[in-house]
Amino acid sequence: MDNTSFVYGGITATNTTLLARLFDESGINTAGSGIGHEITATLDNDPARLTVLNDFYTASVDSFQAGNVQYQFKDLSTGPHVLHVKAWDTFNNSSIKDIEFIAAQTDKLALSHVLNYPNPFAGRTTFHFDHNRQGEDLDVQVQIFTVSGRLVRTLQATIPSSGSHVPQSLNDNTLSWNGRDDFNDQLARGVYVYRVSVRSNKDQSTTSKFEKLVILN
């Protein structure tokens, strides 16, 4: 949804674009030969909300085996949705792929899937989250607390032109943490609480969420 870094179950706007990559060694059936053999997307398991995507398929350059579908869904209701995407090869074999997402109003900054990985950890962990302000510059703050509420470490980062998932790649260590406090002392093993706070530079809207982590050092 919207970009290739989207995570299953993440947040989108109420207008969101399906991106589908198709490949088959025998080729993709875009002619709809055979009854019901079109490329389709069904929203929320409702047969009445089936969309034929043949006209939105673009073959890859110099290839009959691969191509992409791009289709925008508009004015979706806020809340969770599921899409079933179905395609056929030229021998009339079909394949289905599902994706779930949560549509949210873009005027309110929203976070989901706030986590750190690995967790529990020894050595280093990275903080992740999904949001609904794709393309905006975001200021991110991660505060780590003891279970008694004492602040022990603060991480800060600015994410330019953010994708819907942060961090935007596996090699992005912007929100990585080594388990040490603000004085670079190793924290004791055990459970800690952290708060991820995000602010959009576009309209200064903010939101935050709390989660827990475990240090094994």
UniProtKB/TrEMBL annotation:
Listed Gene3D superfamilies: 2.60.40.4070
InterPro entries cross-referenced by the UniProt entry: Secre_tail
NCBIfam families: Por_Secre_tail
Protein name: T9SS type A sorting domain-containing protein
